[in-house]
Design brief:
alpha/beta; 14 strands
Length: 376
């Protein structure tokens, strides 16, 4: 059996090699490496795919979050609500902009921000909420949007792990992850469901005025070259990456279906293992399974991880330490015990290999070893 990968980008590339190679060659032949026509073409195609009115590409998903908050006019000292169980980029930009993160705990099954805690966290100094569509399905956007509208705060979706996931509102309306808030953000990091071969990111909005502002901020604060209307940053998706993403976008629906097939096989095989909690699926959101994340009871998570590694099976802990306990963010005054669900999850979650070209035989081997561990 060949080496098992968490994400097998080489096998994915092999199936689209001809189209990707031609797309890259087209960029090289024309020499427009910055802001070439493929950037605009990809942005328009992604807007069409997601249903967003405007897509503004940028350098990476972290930049997308930062530019979004700059575009919304948040000022130093103001507060932004964020789950403590997520990747650091979500809160990193809050700190960099001189804002104050206001952490909230999450629910133990869906990883959504706890609705009661979210409501309690609101206050006069809160200007934004950052819901995270963790692991590949949408969070409780209807509740969050209603709450934000009631209190006059902005919503910045972190959709880096959930591109293509679809949320259904109670009135039957459907919308994709990243297209529901004031601004949505995503990442095109290579391992993402729609990943390039380097760094890249994008923002989504349905507000034309905000879209123009985000685009301006991402380009040194200028609409016209050398005329700077506001303080901006230099954050752009280069043409080579846009060309690659343009090819891969045409396969995204298939990629999502493939990941669901892998997840279904894991579910069927592991549901009966009493010390494992398989991922919960939210009824009003599809799941694109950026990660297949189980919870391991009985304090055996790390032992299982080691056992799998000894048999050549990689696994990952997303995430080992909640943000409120990270050394970079203890300055905000939180302590151990403040968010017990997130702290528990950091000791129990484990993500198993999942990708678009996963061999069922390889997955059967992974499942066999997981079961073998718990049969000991």
């Amino acid at each position: 059996m060949s080496s098992i990968q968490m994400v097998d980008l080489k096998s994915q590339y092999d199936l689209i090699k001809t189209d990707v190679d031609q797309a890259i060659q087209n960029v090289i032949d024309k020499g427009a490496f910055i802001n070439g026509p493929q950037v605009k073409e990809f942005s328009e195609a992604l807007a069409d795919y997601t249903g967003a009115k405007f897509v503004i590409t940028c350098g990476n998903g972290t930049d997308a979050l930062q530019i979004a908050m700059m575009g919304l006019g948040f000022e130093p000292g103001q507060e932004v609500i964020v789950p403590t169980f997520t990747y650091a980029a979500t809160v990193e930009v809050i700190a960099l902009l001189g804002l104050k993160p206001k952490f909230v705990d999450v629910l133990p099954d869906t990883y959504d921000m706890d609705p009661a805690e979210l409501e309690n966290a609101l206050g006069q100094n809160v200007v934004g909420i950052v819901p995270v569509h963790l692991y590949g399905q949408c969070t409780n956007m209807e509740f969050i949007l209603d709450l934000a509208n009631k209190h006059g705060v902005k919503v910045i979706e972190d959709g880096a792990q959930a591109i293509g996931a679809e949320y259904t509102f109670s009135d039957g309306r459907k919308a994709q992850a990243g297209t529901m808030g004031d601004v949505g953000t995503t990442s095109f990091f290579p391992s993402k469901n729609l990943g390039c071969y380097g760094d890249g990111g994008a923002m989504f909005t349905n507000n034309p005025i905000l879209a123009e502002k985000l685009k301006m901020i991402a380009s040194h604060g200028q609409k016209k070259k050398y005329y700077h209307e506001t303080i901006g940053v230099n954050s752009r998706l280069d043409t080579l990456q846009a060309a690659i993403l343009g090819v891969k976008l045409g396969h995204l629906t298939r990629y999502s279906a493939s990941r669901n097939e892998v997840a279904d096989r894991y579910d069927q095989a592991l549901a009966a293992v009493s010390q494992i909690k398989i991922p919960s699926r939210i009824p009003n959101s599809t799941h694109v399974f950026h990660q297949y994340t189980i919870q391991v009871d009985g304090g055996k998570r790390d032992s299982l991880k080691t056992f799998l590694q000894d048999h050549g099976i990689p696994s990952m802990v997303y995430y080992p330490i909640p943000l409120h306990l990270q050394p970079a963010y203890v300055q905000y005054g939180y302590k151990k015990g403040d968010f017990p669900v997130a702290e528990m999850l950091c000791e129990t979650v484990l993500s198993l290999p999942i990708h678009t070209e996963m061999d069922p035989a390889v997955q059967a081997f992974i499942i066999e070893k997981v079961k073998q561990f718990f049969a000991k």
